[in-house]
Specification:
By secondary structure, the chain is of the alpha/beta class. Helices cover 33% and strands 29% of the residues. It has one domain: 3-Layer(aba) Sandwich (Rossmann fold).
Length: 147
């Protein structure tokens, strides 16, 4: 099974978690990039668009922006081709004290896009950057996604 991790990271928090996951998965690693990282820009122009065609297992990761999926990752996911026969894991990072303050919504948004493209979402994880449980949440996610 050929795997890859595809992320968007504005501050580096999502990237740091993805790097830790990749230490275990040892797979291809890509970043989605846009002309601007300004979270208020709605019409995002992507400058780096990773291709997923050769992969069976995908991990997508994004921060939460304004209680929702970042516009950059939203634009990227929506332009993906059909994801039939692909297994997908998702994780997001956020600073809100509770997952219901954007984390859960963001994961639901990502999952809906993937499922509308016929992909199968296996695991979802919300990493709260300000939580005392952050390290254990990341470790648990890495263990789960590696299985």
């Amino acid at each position: 099974m050929k795997k890859c991790i595809i992320i968007y990271s504005k501050t580096g928090n999502t990237r740091s978690v993805a790097n830790r996951l990749n230490e275990v998965l040892s797979c291809d690693f890509f970043e989605v990039k846009a002309t601007s990282d300004n979270p208020s820009i709605q019409n995002v122009e992507l400058t780096e668009v990773p291709q997923v065609g050769d992969y069976d297992h995908l991990v997508f990761a994004s921060p939460v922006h304004g209680f929702s999926l970042s516009h950059v990752m939203n634009t990227y996911l929506n332009q993906l081709p059909d994801l039939s026969e692909k297994t997908v894991d998702l994780f997001i990072t956020h600073h809100f004290p509770f997952a219901w303050m954007g984390g859960n919504r963001t994961l639901k948004q990502m999952k809906k896009i993937i499922e509308n493209k016929n992909g199968t979402v296996r695991y979802t994880t919300s990493v709260n950057w300000s939580s005392k449980k952050r390290e254990s949440d990341i470790s648990n996610m890495i263990h789960t996604y590696h299985s």
